[in-house]
């Protein structure tokens, strides 16, 4: 089955964390324990949004040692395609939903002497499960967490209370900035760096670290892309003989699924590579929006990642 | 001596490339024998040579073939420059240097496979990613071999097959290489047909 | 050597040896369930992975970890190997959590699949494990290494047939950072531990050029918890030696010179590896089980389809593959012996004996 093993769950709790963020707790329907997972994992939440099927990835933020449930935090996006709005507006305690088994595309390197973490806004969520895991096993970490304002700094209170010497908070509203060059200069050899947050922040942290001589294998980041909204386009599915139209607020993957064609996926955010599909004919431009394909792959034009990428032109035929 | 060209081999056999100066807060260069030339040439490419020299620590030992280019390294004027009589006497100092190193340190290894492999092993032990350690082969191609049977290491192996310096078995030389042991693998050549040992051929010089 | 467990052969498990006098045999019913790896009359490397879902009852696929009549004797042989050479089991320091993951997977699977032999009781993290065939009754604290006589990985793999390795996923590849390797097809854990996927497979001929390892790695990196996969590998071994390690090659290598037409059926063994791959939940590592099944040629040819097929596979195999698998010197003699069991009739697709189709 595409997307791997599924977990039928019940929504146990919905908590308004601040003006933008709600937290959802999922438990099994029969009261059995949830599968164990590793810090940094995500789950794909399936939604039936009034007839539109949505599958969005969210980092699991709860303690991996807690098998009684999984928690995710969702930031409301008022201009996006609607997954977060559906969760915020329609998901209530007691509802039955389906989520995927946890998948980790942002794992901790367990050989690291130290973990240096940078979080921006909702990008804090994978670090919450990682820090819980490190706390159980004695791992050494240092977290730098920036948010727009004190009111929007989700979970800062619990983090600073539990780890007063290891967690450092910054607020844009108060003109506080992470002193990145100073922090990077003092890390012991064997440190690994992790960053999750807005694209600009990720690029700034990684570029600064590279310029300071940090080696690429010690740099880790995670950024899930929401499938971008675009113009409608038509695609021929060569293997099944169907021709489909992808609506402006629909991804190619969603349109393939809506046509009744089973296609592989894991993260649905352009990161994991699972949905990679061969291009059979292309007269036009593939809008590659993923993090998976290399520049050479894109130049060759033989592959497309239907979870986030789109097309503009006369004709596109893919092997699905 | 010019750079070494190795024939194509299996995926576990180490590969080497020219040393390139990279940005960093400090630089550690480890070399033996003709590897000194690679360090000198790398510095010639540095955009800011004085700054690099001011943050450079060189550790050097003569090569297994007797090549000693210490003078050319000493003349560079690096912040620290150390000559060890042998590789085993060089390694404890390297261990001391990496123990207190910070991220942003660049490592440059040059010379024979024995020196490169052992320095890489000790730097890796700190958790530093081995793929980020630069390695350039220069000079002798003699090999550091592990006997898979008695686990003994024989240094500076020149022939194939060769006699294990510990257990005395005749071993053939594989290209299979362990970074963790910093050695190629030697396997008994007459295990199936006792006493049928081919004439040793000099393959490494 | 004294054992730290008390074997209970109990009528089902065979008391036999894999060394010295080589008393290893398959019972007639065990031959029928042998993990015959050829589903067609020829062989070349391929990725050949399929979901490791419960298979037909009585077969080696019925349960997650197959336990058969050789279980207790294999565990005694493993204890002997480890007493002679503890380096056959190693786990790099960062793999402890993956070891606990594997211990949990094996204990839960065996207690579920073989309740007559194994039981697991949990009271929070306080667990009690009973292994009746080995006479073990152990109470311990999950995730607390100080409550077990060995590390979690060594503890559970001393009680489980087959070799195991644990792969850590980093930098877009898998790193073999732990292993319990005492029934291997001639590779050294002590040498290979710490290598990545392409490095430890480096000595395999032809397959790299065919892209087999690139495809296999890509597949494995997407392996998900709860969705294990399996594949076959195989070689040939003279005498039922579980432990064909390079370390002891000078001791067993000469056996390859012994086969004749007279002793071939008894002495030559098809050695099948049923490999299982499991994503582990807490560590995100991948456990790789390499279960070795041995059968004498004379046992295999009691199934007519297998006799015909084995002859054709050995006769037509690429010489580089035969050389890598270590039987090139005996190949012609093997073909000669097997030819008596090949009447040229067509064979049916698939592994199973014809009367079970």
Which features would summarize this protein structure in a list?
heterotrimer; B: 205 residues; alpha/beta; Rossmann fold; 5-stranded parallel β-sheet; 5-stranded mixed β-sheet; elongated; C: 357 residues; alpha+beta; 7-stranded antiparallel β-sheet; 3-stranded antiparallel β-sheet; 13 helices
Describe this entry's structure for a reader.
The complex is a heterotrimer of chains A (320), B (205) and C (357). Chain A is α/β, with parallel strands linked by helices. Helix content of chain A is 19%, strand content 33%. Chain A contains seven helices and 16 strands. Chain A has a six-stranded antiparallel beta sheet, with helices on one face. Chain A has a five-stranded parallel beta sheet with strand order 9-8-7-10-11, with helices on both faces. In chain A, strands 13-12-16-14-15 form a five-stranded mixed beta sheet. With 205 residues, chain B is α/β, with parallel strands linked by helices. Helix content of chain B is 22%, strand content 29%. Chain B has five helices and twelve strands. In chain B, the strands form three sheets. A five-stranded parallel beta sheet of chain B has the order 3-2-1-4-5. A five-stranded mixed beta sheet of chain B has the order 7-6-11-10-9. In chain B, helix 5 links the parallel strand 4 and strand 5 (134-137). The longest helix of chain B has 13 residues, at 87-99. With 357 residues, chain C is an alpha+beta fold. A seven-stranded antiparallel beta sheet of chain C has the order 1-8-9-10-6-7-2. In chain C, strands 3-4-5 form a three-stranded antiparallel beta sheet, covered by helices on one side. The interface between B and C is medium-sized, with 25 and 27 residues.
Could you state the CATH homologous superfamily of the largest domain in chain B? Nucleotide-binding domain of ferredoxin-NADP reductase (FNR) module
Largest sheet of chain A: 6 strands, antiparallel
The gyration radius over C-alpha positions of chain B equals: 18 Å
Highest-level CATH class of the largest domain in chain B: Alpha Beta
Quaternary arrangement of the chains shown? Answer: heterotrimer
Structural class of chain A: alpha/beta
